[in-house]
Amino acid sequence: MQPAVPLPPTVPSPHGERPRIAPLPAPERPDPVRDRWRGRMRLAIEEAALATATGDVPVGAFVLGPDGAVLGRGHNVREAVGDPTGHAEVVAIRQAARAVGEWRLTGCTLIVTLEPCTMCAGAIVLSRLARVVFGAYDPKAGAAGSLFDVVRDNRLNHRPEVVGGVLAEECTAQLLAFFDTQR
Ligand SMILES: [Zn+2]
User: Fold this and answer.
1) Could you read off the pLDDT of 93-142 as tens digits, one per residue?
2) Distance between Cα 82 and ligand 1 center (Å)
3) pLDDT of 182
């Protein structure tokens, strides 16, 4: 009788003839909260890569309308234009506000490869974005839960939903690869 369920793959044991059961790769657990943003985060990673041409830290951002349409996009241009506020989020938010025709980005989502800093978290609150989705956590400067939690501070009158850690490993690897080249 053949077993109904296929056996796991085996590798020959170096200690004898009897096969050893090889460890199966850990199954990727479904993550319904983060998984739906993975495709958009890949686009933000591509946007981030554009920053390195001017020696800027690779951070990329998108603003999506309530229907998912792209309203704004941007990457870090701090070095490119010599602007301390030239963070990817600010660039994308400004473009989205121009597209919408007003400063309120009600119902919109910001996707960004790195956890927003205090300035960008402030801009997110002030633009009334409904949601912020970020990739890499920033323990040193993150203001969406790591060092501060500006976007979910009960004392402020607007608190967007936060989804952190989407493709966090890829986003972190992109930043680390950049800083490696800067040494
Ligand atoms: Zn920022």
Assistant:
1) 999 999 999 999 999 999 999 999 999 999 999 999 999 999 999 999 99
2) 15
3) 85
Q: What is the pTM of this model?
A: 0.84
Residue 97 has a CB neighbour count (10 Å cut-off) of 18
Q: According to the model, what pLDDT value does residue 8 have?
A: 54
Is residue 89 part of the annotated active site? The answer reads: yes
Taking the C-alpha atoms of residue 125 and residue 130, their distance in angstroms, rounded to an integer, is 9
Q: How many angstroms separate the alpha carbon of residue 142 from the centre of ligand 1?
A: 9
From the list 28, 46, 89, 102, the catalytic residue is 89
Give buried/exposed letters for 137-168 (b at 16+ CB in 10 A, else e): bbeeebbbbebbebbbeeeeeeebebbbbbbb
Give distance in angstroms: CA of 89 to centre of ligand 1: 6
